[in-house]
Amino acid sequence: MKFYKSSKSRSQGRGSWSVIFRHPARIDVSTGKAGRRVRRGLGTSNDVDADRMVDQLNQILSTPELWEATARTTALGRFDERVVEIFYDGLESTEVDFAKLRDQVLPLPGESDGYRTVLLLGTTGAGKTTVVRQILGTDPDAERFPSTSTAKTTVADTELITTDAEEYRAVVTFVPRDEVVDYLVENVSAAARAAYRGEPDEKIRRYLLDHVNQRYRFSYVLGRGASPVEDLDLADVDDDDDDDDIDDINPAEYGAVDLAVTNDVVAEAVAAVKAVVARYVGEAEKLLDVSGGLQVLADSVEEESQDDERVAAELIEEELDRELRQSDEFHTIVDLLVDEIEKRFAALDVGNLQRSRQGWPSTWSWESTDRGSFIKAVTRFSSNYAPLFGRLLTPLVNGIRVEGPFRPSWSSDPVRLVLVDGEGLGHTPKSVATLSTHVATQLQAVDAVLLVDNAAQPMQAASVAALKGIAVSGNASKLHTIFTHFDQVKGDNLPTFSEREQHVMASVENVLSSIGDELGPPAERILRRRLNEARYFVGGIHEQLRVGKKASRRSIEQINELLKVLERPAGSTESGPSRPVFESADLPLAVTAAARSFHSRWRGLLGLEYNSEAPKEHWTRVKALSRRLAEGWDDEYDNLKPVAELRYQLEAQIYLLLQRPKRWSNGEPEEEEKQVTLEILSSAVTIHLVELTQRRLRDEVRAGWQQAYLQSGSGSTFARARIIERDVFDRGAPIPSVSVSPDQNRFLRDVVDIVVTVVKEFGGGFE
């Protein structure tokens, strides 16, 4: 049993004290052993109070019987409440329901209130948020809400409630502190690798602040400094800034922040990264006791681990990553950045900021009857406007809900909708394989889905993936499609609107035929029907549409038609009395096909076999994925989505099975009734599959993900891949075979039980 001691610390320029210690009962994923590093604010600047709390924490650290979560009550009777919160935070695995937190401040209206909820899906740059602006009637020049750009903009769920009340209200929820710290740890690691490669300071700074998958761009919070960044293979500066060229915003009105101090802190962090890397390289060379020792190590590794297909540079970078993550200097750099981030919350001078028991912000809320001041206040949590960098909290937000009397300027009728604008499809340089677990859950909850696609480049990979995901999950009847950039569809052979529409739909036809080949005629039929009945074409919507302007007239008509359908949908066909009966032997075959497709794709991604459709991923990305699942705070990394991909493969195969009933009780129904039955069953199955795949590939195999993350050194890429295959995928989603193992039995039985139960509850059966 190992004992640790805590110590107090205070960053330069920071008034309050913090405490740092290694937790004896929490796992450090860097080592796989107890001793996770914890740093928390004590909430006092008084030396005596700080020393008293540190002393109490040391008493807990020296008393093993207090290390269990059940001892919290006993500890509360003996120690300061703040000390108890610091020690017991994270001992029990709890998932925060952020939507519920928002509900407590601003409940979402539902069908009983006369509202319908619409989920917007679309590829990056298709104009999804611009469509939202037009529906809300916000001015793209004066209000800039929600924010738009040609690159990633919406990275958190934005829920927008249109109402005829006079007051504007908002509530924001924030990413948990530990998750922010984990992303910063990855940033510092990426910056260290850049320093090892000899990159210039400007690039090291950018790696330090902006995460490589672009979800967390802390430069929005901390600023980008005065130096331009050139030739960086992350997001281009011009592309990820707001595309509106407006100069009438005064940054000083968005919080009292000393950017000069922040720039000094970031510069200090860059220097610290370079120094610790230089020291590591020097110590490694000294340890090897060979001139140019790292190159000798590289050469030997290349010879000894050819099966791993790792170049020597990758090994050295991974060793650097492992060593640094265990050093106090490394975490001190992270601490510097966290302290600067927390200053932005302290600078909030409007609204009500609520904090968790651990002191990290949980919600911010605000209400006002003044539209201008309201949007200005909300801007801090949603904007990507470059002149405000250093004052924004956008990357720290995981959900924002806004309610107000929003309506298009050209409409006199009130709009009663809840618009859910989430992260765009294809926010990665690679195509999206399937919809995330989060989006799959949203699809089941909403009343309508609005797919936003670019008419100038229709139906790219991400949009096609969305159509397939919507179909197999039983949600095709909710689909509405709006094609933007229609003004850019031009040609001498396209003189009329109808001919331009047909030009766009020709691309759609090719996609629908392909989906029919893959998912069967019912999927093609329902998607074709929805695209014929609920498709809209708009252009020029990046500007404010005006009734008297000829170029705006057609887009206004199209959006008006869309809003009428979203608010008052046509009646749906009933399922009728007929019920399907399926062949029992088909179900195990469907599960086997799904598992085989899943394993084939992931063996390619892990580099265990060649797969042209799923080439080997870089070790840093697989390691980042394994960390998220080891920690339990996400089930995907960028476009690597094992949980979602298993769900989709099962959905697709079961969808195909449900199209082929052995017979129908009470007579065979009409095609429309068959389609309704198929959607009802598919939707119900999906709800269960979301829970099943998370449990089997995340919760029940967490030890496998942890072991995979811990691999380092020569051959670790191959070892990590084998562990993920053996201890995660083969256990969580084994391919059923003749010689059935207990894991195969349970996986097959779990899926079979879901489908059989759903079918029987609907009145059908298997025989």
UniProtKB/TrEMBL annotation:
Record Gene3D superfamilies: P-loop containing nucleotide triphosphate hydrolases
Name the record gives this protein: 50S ribosome-binding GTPase
Organism, as annotated: Gordonia pseudamarae
Lineage: Bacteria, Bacillati, Actinomycetota, Actinomycetes, Mycobacteriales
